[in-house]
UniProtKB/TrEMBL annotation:
This is Unnamed protein product. GO terms for biological process: tRNA wobble base 5-methoxycarbonylmethyl-2-thiouridinylation. It comes from Aspergillus oryzae. Residues 155-247 form the ELP1 three-helical bundle domain. Residues 155-186, 256-283 are annotated as: Disordered. Residues 156-171 have a biased composition (Low complexity). GO terms for cellular component: cytosol; elongator holoenzyme complex. It comes from the Eukaryota.
Length: 313
């Protein structure tokens, strides 16, 4: 390896640290670069605070004889972290308060008026009570079999292949369009309930990943003598976890009881067999998959528990 000059080495280290901060959001690794290679201890401590490493930031400042910067750097980092966490928990709370009642409302509407909910005739449908049009003519006619054929192509079969190709393309286009509708979960569509249920599931998973961050933040606040702030953030987290537990019962309550699991477990198998027999195509497949997911068994996500600090109890 060709040795680099000290200036080039510092330039490379600074460039790497900047990339870690701006693109990767890896504040801890960037802090190590600033502390060990660029010898910028205050900036390294600030980056450690942004990475929720408040104890490491305090230790770094103490090792380099900069204890007087602890209130300025660590306390400011704690205040910023608490503000961001408070906003995040408020977003969790508002999303749950908006989506869970909407899911309950949609399920009541589905039970009372399935015709308006699914957009089909429940008296003509199968086990799911939905009439999914297939757009397939069962009785061939001259208009359907000889359309577009001339006296030169009616016996070659070329036009038939072209028609099948065009139909396949149209089916794929319709399926992609319907899958986009399903992914967007627009309000008022049949895909809204499935979208909201998946959204609540993702929110609970996000809350679970936030529990450890809150525990670290509470411990750091207590070390700096900010007892009231620590109690406030812990209480806010407990409220969000309680909302998640309640929504887990309301949204995924169908799988809570053992009897419900056995009953719901048998229905999806029947739906799958029916789907294989009917073999929906195009947008009908996305529609049928959405109905199966909406009416099928939903596995309830687990909700983590917050380890309450002994200093606050």
């Amino acid at each position: 390896m060709v040795p680099l000059s000290e200036e080039k080495l510092k330039a490379h280290a600074l460039e790497l640290a900047t990339t870690l901060i701006e693109e990767n959001k890896d504040y801890v690794s960037a802090a190590h670069i600033h502390a060990e290679h660029l010898h910028d201890v205050p900036l390294a401590a600030r980056l450690l605070c942004r990475g929720s490493r408040f104890a490491d930031a305090t230790r770094l400042l103490a090792l380099h004889g900069k204890q007087n910067l602890v209130p300025e750097i660590v306390d400011t980092g704690l205040a910023d972290a608490m503000g961001s966490m408070t906003d995040l928990l408020a977003d969790f709370r508002s999303q749950l308060n908006a989506q869970v009642p909407r899911i309950v409302e949609l399920r009541v509407r589905r039970a009372t008026d399935p015709l308006a909910y699914f957009g089909g005739d429940p008296t003509m449908g199968g086990d799911m009570g939905v009439d999914i049009p297939d757009n397939v003519s069962l009785a061939p006619t001259d208009a359907s079999t000889l359309a577009g054929r001339s006296m030169f192509t009616r016996y070659t079969g070329k036009t038939g292949k072209t028609g099948k190709t065009n139909m396949t393309r149209q089916t794929s286009k319709t399926r992609r369009k319907e899958e986009r509708k399903r992914a967007s979960g627009k309000k008022g569509t049949v895909y809204e309930e499935e979208y909201l249920v998946n959204s609540v599931r993702r929110l609970i998973e996000r809350v679970n990943s936030t529990v450890s961050e809150v525990e670290t933040l509470v411990s750091a606040l207590l070390r700096r003598g900010m007892r009231e702030r620590a109690a406030a953030i812990e209480k806010a987290m407990q409220e969000v976890l309680k909302l998640c537990t309640d929504s887990r019962v309301e949204v995924f309550g169908a799988v809570a009881s053992p009897g419900g699991e056995q009953t719901d477990g048998a229905e999806p198998e029947t739906n799958v067999n029916t789907a294989e027999e009917v073999s929906p195509r195009g947008g009908q497949r996305a529609f049928a998959d959405s109905i199966a997911a909406t009416l099928g068994v939903r596995e309830a996500p687990a909700v983590k528990e917050l380890k309450q600090s002994a200093l606050l109890n």
